[in-house]
Amino acid sequence: MAVKRRKIRIDLDEFESGNLPPVCMISGEDTDESKRCTFAWTPPVCYVGLIGGLLPYIILALVLRKKYSCTLPLEAKYHGYFWKRSLFSAVAVIGGFVSLFFGIAFAAQLEVKNPSLAGAIGIAGFVAMIVGLVAGVWISTRGLRVDSITNDDLTFVGVHPRFVEELEIEREAEREARRKRRERRYREDPDE
């Protein structure tokens, strides 16, 4: 049975204090392993720059892009998870554009001898490009990934529900400990 993945916001303080539960964010299994990962996120508002062309988009993306490095609890078998997914996505997109290029180049050479075959090859190259783009987007939007990065937190989607549950338990324990510290401080010095 497929596990319904969850979305969760994790404060930067939780990363820095090491208060994440020892549960793999992908599989939900107990783990003592962790992996240092660097995430980059570009706000969706940057796509508005495409109205003015590619250069305004690139400028907006470079200015507004946020990066953060953190240590995530991941089983050893998932240590290459992020770069492999990025590689497969890039190969799909690049493969689609290469197919389009070769389809057009081959069709241009055949156009004089067999125009109907040239048209079919050109269309096949275009279809291969669309398939590559769709496959690249599909791969990059599946599984564990960062949905947003702010100055205070990272929002992950595709997180295993067991990790989310364990994190909520740890957060509740931390809130309870803070409440007890405040009560103790108040009892010791009620004038503050």
Q: Helix and strand string, N-terminal first?
A: EHEHEHHEEH
Q: Strand content of the residues, in percent?
A: 15-25%
Percent range for helical residues?
A: 40-55%
What is the number of beta strands?
Answer: 5
Radius of gyration: 24 Å
Largest sheet properties: 3 strands, antiparallel
List the strand order in the largest sheet.
1-5-4
Tally of alpha and pi helices: 5
What general form does the structure show?
Answer: elongated
Enumerate the spans where pLDDT stays under 50 for 5 or more consecutive residues: none
Q: Which structural class matches the secondary elements?
A: alpha+beta
Instruction: Report how far apart the termini are.
Output: 55 Å
What do the pLDDT scores average to? 86
Give the helix/strand layout.
Blueprint: E1 6-11, H1 12-17, E2 35-41, H2 54-64, E3 66-72, H3 81-110, H4 115-140, E4 145-149, E5 153-159, H5 161-188
